[in-house]
Amino acid sequence: MGKGRWNRRIGLMIPSDLNIRQKALDPTQSFIVQAPAGSGKTELLIQRYLKLLGGVSQPEEILAMTFTRKAAGEMKIRIISALNRAQVDTPPDEDHQRTTWNLARVALERNQKFGWRLLENPARLRVVTIDSFCAFLTKRTPMLSRMGGPAEIQENIQDLFVGTAKQILSKVENTGDLYCELVRALLVHLDNDKNTFIQRIAQLLQLRDQWMISFFDKYENIKEHLLNDSHREKLVTLYSELIEKQLKTACDLFPEPLRSKTVPFAMHAGMNLAVNQPDNSIASLKSMESFPLPEVENLNKWKGLANLLLTAEGKIRKKVDKNLGFPPEEKEIKSEFKDFLESLKDFKDLEKALGKVKTLPSPHFNDYEWDILRSTLRLLPEIESNLRKLLQENKISDFSEVSLAALKSFGNDMEATDLGKYLDDKIQHILVDEYQDTSFKQEELLKKLTAEWEPGKGRTLFVVGDPKQSIYRFRDAEVGLFLKTQNEGIGNLDLKKLSLESNFRSQEGLVDWVNQCFEKILPEQDNPDSGAIAFSKSTAVHPKEPYPGVVLHPLDPEENSVQASRAEARKISQTVQSIRRGSPEATTAILVRGRTHLKEIIREFENLRIPYQAEEIYNLTDRPAIKDLLSLLRALLFPLDRIAWLAILRAPWAGLTLNDIHLLCENDPEAPVWELINIPDLNLSEKGKVQIERLISVLSPTLKALPSNNFRELLENCWIRLGGPACHEGTPSRDIETFFDEVERIMQKSDAGRLEHFNQVIENLHASPLTTSENAIQIMTMHKAKGLEFDYVILPGLGKPPRQDRKRLVFWMPYGKELLLAPIEEKGAENSPLYNFLSELDKEKDRHEMLRLLYVASTRARKQLHLFGKTKVKAGEMIPESNSLLESLWPFIKSDWCRTEFIITPLIQGEKDSDKEAITLKRIPETFQLPNAIPAIEPNLIVEIEEEKETSPFIWAGNTARCLGIVLHRIFQSISIEGIEKWSTERTRKMAPQIRAALLGEGLPFEQAENALKLAIEGINNTLIDPRGRWILSNHDESQAEYPVTFSSENRFIRNIIDRTFVEDEIRWIIDYKTSRHEGESLEIFLNSEVNRYKPQLDRYESLLKDFGEFRQIKKALYFPLLKAWREV
Q: Are residues 656 and 748 in the same domain?
């Protein structure tokens, strides 16, 4: 790894891999580029795209694919921005930007020559997600892909998985069904537990894009395929090969001089135990005349040897007794064996390898295991078929189904369709981003897209990624595919291997720490089967800062988990406040492995009013009011759902005490709750009787109205009358609206059956962040942070272990070009050795991915990284929790961690030191009444609905002003919703093509577009720079943008739009944007005249808000973006 040279002109190092980046732009060659964190791979992709754009006949000949809509959108915006920047004759100062500028200039010449009009029609740039490209294929090949008509794509169809599982289970009663016996065999295997059966089948369907590729492509006749004896022997051979690999590892680690010394001890122990404990694995060593070879035939001897040398916990033994085959009277050999064990204590790798040997299985299936495995595999196509029918009936699909259907549209090796040849004529170049996250089905798609490509014909494939950042195994990403592609190419296509090393993101001190740390903790060699990825160093482009790149914050190991979490939260809040004082504009992120690590941190932030934004941390079902709404929905639809009914009795709108609920239900635990609460003279407290009476008065008419074609309206009306809007503290109104909208969406599709599993339908919908603010602290998972960067990064909870995965009905794992299989053990029986063996191999892959996740999180920082974690004390030594991220870091940071002062925070007065939190029940008061309804429309009169009449513009304003005003209002609305911290003048510049398109879309003539575009950009940038403008668009309490308010006058309904309104310091602000330009008279006179002209309009807004219940002081103002002027009215 070379050091770059210093560039005095720009104050940065010249990248040491500059030649490699230039090679990657060769449009005649296919490449696979390994690009570590911060290496500028996105810019390299854009440069490659622009280079290709300068040589193709049509822009559609280039296909760029990535994994997320956000990444695809960013790439397209940056391409368009580069083309716009290239229209300026002055090149940029920085070398890499100048390269982009030169390539874009050539592309613009091509654009001009062939009349592509890319800047007016950016949709011609085919930068898409892989999922959207698959959807494109299926829509154009409905017969080949077997997708049929159009279907709505949904990310969560868990309820349909459950429905499919129930259909499969129903076959158990139908003796005429071909699959009846298979279902019965599996049901018996699961101890006739129907719920477990349904859960296991639904779990299989969640992973179906894995087994559909793995099984069905290989065994097209799987409905008749019986996994015959030859395949059984093949699996035995594969397992034997894996077992021997582990034996060889242990053998190689066993010191040569000590091997021969082991033999007499092993034989002695074996002969002694063979007499009284013949089943003991050590007894198999009685005939071990030489050190065993690492062969599967010697498996029992190796396991006996491992048990002889290791304790049950997997440590080298210290105690020797008769249970090991060394009775008390044999003192001499017993003493010698102790000395031998002492000589092994420092061989930790050998200790670990022998620990794995202890759990190795026999490579052979017993007949029962084999029958269950065959039954499960033979059932898979029927499971998939039933799901497809359900999807077609409901006219919905998910991304897995779309991807699989896209592959089917190409046909197979024996019967290829014409789609490949058709696309071969249309696509000349393919670029793929984030290739380390490729799955088997996506690799298969690339193979089919390039199957007809011949060397030297001008077609190229360019893939970019970093295997050290492969962190999406749960989405079927297989990092081994990146290594395989580096070595073997894709299909018949060879790709030249390139590796980048320059880091354009982080300061040198941070880059050096990452290099030293991850070189120590990542594997030394790549291994595609285990997912091991070796480390490769980076070189910093940015110089070293005077402060440390990494700061350690160890928690007191003696504290309990609650104390430690509170201490961590307080220290993090202090760290954040210190950063914000020293660098107010710096960006800060808190990245966690799991959202459960955030409870105390968020509580501390809210107590201290530290602004934060939790990005996709909470699901909709985490919100208290949503849980209550789910209970209400189920209670109305399913009268026998006792849990749902009891839940609404405890909800804030009813609030029965536990004692009253007990009195209500104790004498009849089976009767429906609705029947129980309607019994006269209930034996409840007086308060309880009042609450029940009120509940019945609301629920009774609602239940009588069922079934209803407008269930959403009925449910919402019931919730409002119960008092739901008065007690949804902690749940934003937009989350409540999302819930009702999802109910309405299902009802509109005549799909009421999905309401039975409505909690599964909405479980993946993310809740809105409770707090947002300009430059708020970003809180997200480490996975979500992939591709982002921040000045300061905080990693809390490093000492906490992850949750355990659930078992599958059948375990499968790719191994080379083959597939390893093992069935789950019979319910209640001992763990299946083969299943556990595969599971341990899978856990090894997880451990390697955990290291990569830590690398991703650590490399998000530009300036400084803060690490928080708690160890435990064992035998006087600090050690991290097993499988925690801190354990992964321990080999490198142990000495520094142990030297750093612990974070110890004393309890605040009145704070309880307990694992259990005090629960405060909040209920609406007994005297609660609904507010008065708005008066009804007078009958027998024709109602008119009209829009607010705009104040007449000046004569010179005309159509340009109208279009400009509409577009600017729309952009300001977007800024206020997204958050002003996400907007900059650079982003405005990049959005020029979209702004121009929006102006043209409003009917502005082409010849006026350029002038209007300049005014629009000027107005946006003025607002972003102006402190008053930033204040207006920043987040505030009860903020609204383009807020519609309707009032009635003389039986007419008039709709008004308030540009911006919010509350600050108990003052309601009403602000109207005016895109007027100053021409003619003095600016002061002009602004005063505008105030006089628009005062009646703002007074009307004030009156409307007061009519709707606004009780606070109201202030009104005009803001002029083009003038950076402000006037209160």
A: yes
